[in-house]
C-alpha cells in the first residue's frame, strides 16, 4: 500500500479504519450484553448473525490494511459466532460463554490499538508480539466448541471465496429475485403468437445469469444459465417443453438463492432437456465460452450494460457516506449561527422598513390633500385671470376665451401636482417591494430553520456513544464484588456534541464506579434496610434551556454529611469548630477535592481520592459543571450540566432597570401580571399564591450581581403602575417567581457559551446578539433558583385561602425536588379534578414517588387491567362514570388487584362515608383540605407496610 500512496493518505484512511472498527467492536460488546436479556430464539439468531457480520467486516478491513494478526484474531472470533449460529440447541448462552466472548472483544480492541500504532510509527508488524493474544482467542474458540459443538466446515463455494461471501450473498439477496421473477412472469404469459418476444426475454435473462456466474465464479449458476441457453437454442421444442424446463430453471434459481443466503452446500435439481418438436422453433443465441474453474474469470460475450443487474444505494439499503473533519463541521455550525443572527437583523430592518412605508403612506395622503387644495386654488386663479384677460389684448390678438393665459405660478403649481402624483406612484412601488421583502424574509426564515436543523445534526451523536460501554463495566463489577446492580439508561438518543464525548467518558465511568462502590449497599444490607437486594443506577440525558443535563442517580445509602465532617477533621483539613459550621453545599464540595475520600482504606474501586477530582477537572475543560444531591438512606444524584456548542432556541426577553436579559422559554411556566395586594409576607420573604401553593417571589435584579451599561427602551407591553410582570420559573432545582420591569417579547436566539478563558458566571448561561446588534446575556434558571434553594425548594400546599389559614411566618417543611427513580414506589392518583390531580402529583413527585393519574374510577380500572403497577392508590369518592366506592369494590373483588392498598381522599368528612369506605376495604381515609406533611408521613407508612 505504501508504494501506491504517501504516508498522509495512509493516515487519512487509517482514521476511517479506526473509527469503523471501534463502531463494530462497540456493537459486538453491546450485543453480547444484550444476549443475556434476549428470551426468544429468533431474536438470539438475529443478534448472532449481526455479530458474525461485524467480526467478518473487521477481518476483511484488517486484511486490506495488512494487519495480518488482527485479521486472524477477527477470523477466530468470527468462527466463535459461526459455532453459535450453527449449534443445534436454541437455548440462551451461558454467562461463562458471554464472558469469554467479551474477553475476546477486549483482545480485538487491544490488537486494533497495537496494529494501528505500528502504522502510525511506520514500523513493521512482528507476529511474535501478537502470538500470546492470538493463542488466548484460540482458547476461547476451543472452550466454546467444547460447550456448543465444533465448527462446521463451510460450503465448497464459501471455501473458494472466503473473502467475498458477503458480497455474493448481497448480490443473491438483492439482484437475483428480479431475474427469476421476470423469468416466471414470461413463462406464465408465453403463447404461440409471442414466441419471438419470449425468446428475446430469455436471451436477456441468459446474459444476466451468465454474466453473474462469470463475475462471481459460481459454476452452479453457470449450469443454470447453460440450461436456459439450451432451452432457447434447441430447435423445435414445444411451448409446453420450454415452460416445463423454464419452471425447473426458476425453481433451481430460488433453491440456489436460499442455499447461498443460508450458507449451505449448493445442491441443484436435475433439469432434463425435452425431445425436439419439428413444428416449433425458438431463435437460437450465440454460444458463450464454457465457464472454467480457474483463477481468472472466463471471457464472456460483451453484454448490453442495461441488461446487467444493478442496484442503487437506496435499493441495497446502504447509504453512501463521507467522513468530514470535526473542525470543518464546527466552522459550518458557527456560520449557521451567524446566518441566523444576520437573518434576525434582516427581520428587524424589514420591520423598520414596513414602519417607514406606513409613515410615508401617511405623508403622501397629506401631500395628496395639499395637491387637491393647490389644484382648486390653481383653477380659481386661472378663472380670475381669464375674467381679467377679457379686457386685455393677447399679443397674438386672441381673447381669454380663445386661449388660456399662464403665469409662472401656474407652472410651479402644475409641477408640484405632477411631483405629488409621481411620489404616490413610487410609494405604491415601495409598498409592493416591502411586501415582497416580507415574503422573502419569511421564506428565508423557513430555509434557515431547515438548514439549522440539518447542520446541527452533522456534528452531534447519540448519548449512547458515551454510555454503551457502561453496562459491561457494571456487569463485570457485579460479578467481581458480589453485588447485583442494574444500570438503567434513559435518553440514549439524546443528541450531544461529538467534541464532548471524550471529556464526558471518564467522568461517567468514575461516577458510575462511585455509585457502585459508595452508594449501592451489599444485598444483605439492602434487605436489612427494607430494600430489594438488587440496586439500581440510573443515567439520564436531556436538553433543557440551552444545556445538556445528565443525571447519575442511585438508590443506595446516600452520603452522610457527618461522615464528611469527621473525615475532614481526621485529615486536618478543618478544625472541629469549622466543620460544624460548614453548610451542606460546602461539605459536598470537599468530595471533589484531590486526595479526599470518605473511605479510609484504598481498594481497587475507591479510597485514593482521585475519581471525583477527575470528574470536575474534565468537565471544566468543556465548561461543564457538576452538583451533588443526596438523601441519607435513599440515594445520591450527581447532576452534570454541559453547554451546547451552539444552541438555537426560543427565549423571552425582559428588562430590569436598564438591562435587557433573555430567559429560556422552556423554563417559563407562566407569565402573570400581579397586583401588589396579592403578595403576602412570610417573615421578610414575599410569597405569591400560584396553583394552590405559595412560592417565593424575588426581584430578578436581586439574583444577579453584574452591572452592564445599556440604553433604556420602553416595553411594547404597557403595564399599569398597580401591576407588575411576574415570571414563574421551573427547573430541576425547584420553582420560583421573579419580578421584572418590562416584558419585551419572545425571540429565537443563538445561544453562545462564553469563550475561554472566561469562566462561567453564576446565573449566566451564555450570550446572544439581537437583530439590532445588542449583546444580551442569557440567564441560567437552574443557577438562579439554586441560589435560594441549593438542593430543595420549599413549597406549602394549602386549601382554598381563608383569613384563618393564610400563610404564617416561619419555616415550612422542605419537600425535595429530586426526580424519582424507576425503582421508587408508584402511586395512582384518581380524581376528576385536574387541579387536584396535578397538585397532589406535584407533592408526591417532590417526595420522590412515581405518580400515575386517572380521571375517574373507570379510567383507573382500565389502566390496572393494562398492566399498571402501583404500590398505593389514592382515590376521590365523587367522580363520573365510576365513583370511588364502586372502584374500591371492583378492586377488592379482583384477585390481581385486591392486595393493592387504597386510600380515600375526599371532601366528604362525615362518619357515614368514612364507615362505608372502611367496610369496602380502604386502608386510610383523608379529607380535603389536607396537611401535606401528615399526608406524606401516612403514605410512607402505608407503602412501607406493603413492601
Can you walk through the features of this model?
With 947 residues, the chain is an alpha/beta fold. It is built from 29 helices and 26 strands. Strands 10, 11, 12, 13, 14, 15 and 20 form a 7-stranded mixed sheet that branches. The protein has a 5-stranded mixed sheet with strand order 2-4-5-7-6. The longest helix is centred in the middle third of the chain and has 64 residues, at 326-389. It is globular, with a radius of gyration of 40 Å. The relative contact order is 0.04. Residues 1-5, 278-318, 709-720 and 790-822 have low confidence and may be disordered.
Instruction: Identify the overall geometry.
Output: globular
Number of helices: 29
Which stretches are low in confidence, meaning pLDDT under 50 for 5 or more residues running?
1-5, 278-318, 709-720, 790-822
**Mean pLDDT across every amino acid position:** 76
Proportion in helices: 40-55%
The fraction of residues in strands falls at 15-25%
Counting DSSP E segments of at least 2 residues, the number of strands comes to 26
